Amino acid sequence: MNKTIGFIGLGVMGKRMAGHLLNAGNSLRVYTRSAEKARELLDRGADWADSPAVVARTCDIVFTIVGFPKDVETVYCGEQGLIANLRAGAILIDMTTSRPDLAVRIADATQKRGGQALDAPVSGGDKGAREATLSIMVGGNRAAFESVLPFFKLMGRNIVYQGPPGSGQHCKMCNQIAIASNMLGVCEAIAYARKAGLDPATVLKSISAGAAGSWSLSNLAPRMLDGDFEPGFYVKHFIKDMAVAAESADAMGLRTPGLNLALSLYHKLQEKNCGDEGTQSLYRLYSET
Amino acid sequence: MNKTIGFIGLGVMGKRMAGHLLNAGNSLRVYTRSAEKARELLDRGADWADSPAVVARTCDIVFTIVGFPKDVETVYCGEQGLIANLRAGAILIDMTTSRPDLAVRIADATQKRGGQALDAPVSGGDKGAREATLSIMVGGNRAAFESVLPFFKLMGRNIVYQGPPGSGQHCKMCNQIAIASNMLGVCEAIAYARKAGLDPATVLKSISAGAAGSWSLSNLAPRMLDGDFEPGFYVKHFIKDMAVAAESADAMGLRTPGLNLALSLYHKLQEKNCGDEGTQSLYRLYSET
Predict the structure, then answer these.
(1) Which of A105, A175, B250, B260 has the smallest CB count inside 10 Å?
(2) What interface predicted TM-score (ipTM) does this complex get?
(3) Mean pLDDT, residues A183-200
(4) Which CATH number fits domain B4-164: 1.20.1280.260, 3.40.50.720, 3.40.50.970, 3.40.50.300?
């Protein structure tokens, strides 16, 4: 692992993930839109790059995790982007949750320039990033995947190759689709318990371990009950993901009524200025009516 | 435990549950609509009763688990029912998943006749019944609950007192509500994976253990992929439960759009003559379009 690793995007997730690469003794070159977010890593020995183009010109492996698909497009595409400034044989790995079709486009363009691009979105949130227990779902060239696997292992635990370019993003969409409808069930179960005069915490004792059990019921329902709407995962980001999933399903001719309903309710929630809260704040729609 | 225990309803669940009571050395008097379903228990030493009235007149504790709320009404109410023929001080325990308001009515009527009635629906299915690992959610008089707890412990593992009459049924409704919406998410995630050309089993490896994880995703999604629609839990019974939950939510002024959507999709499934399949057959709606 003597190569210089590039890392672009040092938000809540990226900062932790880049930190693990650095801790393992890799030399790291970082760029992020808000330079002050890089300070901690620079203090610990990372180099600063002034732009994605500089990162691309000086690194053989580049990880990115930015906010929205449009940010991915900015970082990868255009004259100052990663692809146009690629080193021969470089591997670009986008860990943002983004559009599957964009991932395919990036992989094609990168390959034409003599490199490989992987789409490798994650789940596990802030906690998973901090504890290096992320689930990483990877699409793209298999040999490229194998060659960067040691780096993935510094950041995650459940690392699965899903198939050709876009497959990582598609897999992440499956993850978000499964969560979306389940959030309705969790909120409605809790709201029903309250309305019926039960103690919702006692109800959770009965139902959490059985056929109604889910990660969200065990982890988010208690926060709903405490009125704790602090973000683990932002409403605004979940909406972005669901919108991509819905659009992608639509393009494939797949009907997803549960996802569509969840998305419409989350839009309502965002109209109440709750976009910066955690996804569990969906419960507000049920408790405030 | 020297009392004679009555048991009414020897379907897939009841037969197993009554068997555990018998195995523990209790003397058991059984009644069920289709007498042939009692044979095994009679061979093992249970007594036959010709009607609910006979059971009521000769037992101090009576368990019931029948099909639908109307069956509960038949067994409990009317001149030949349990309540009209109650022994003084008897305890009636309905383990059917039934209407909370009916449970309240039965508890009131039973108390007026000098007894107590508990509503104690279960979750855990055939497997839970067989292995005595059911989750039992109990509403009704607390002292009555304590006095029959040793019997519950012969049938289940997670036994929780939820509150006054009807609370057990309300809790079970919370359970079904949480499952209902989640089933949409599970089906849509799997259907999306297939449409996107991923291997759904590999997708499950990525998503089952994280924030999208649920009992249904781990246990029912693999059956969907295998085209195995054999009933663990019947579509027709799930529809009954969801209909009760939706009606009850409506009566309380609670909006449950996720539940309503799930119910409407399961109705569609039943129109395709899938009522006797397992709840995972909801996937048919997504895979056959």
Answers:
(1) B250
(2) 0.96
(3) 98
(4) 3.40.50.720
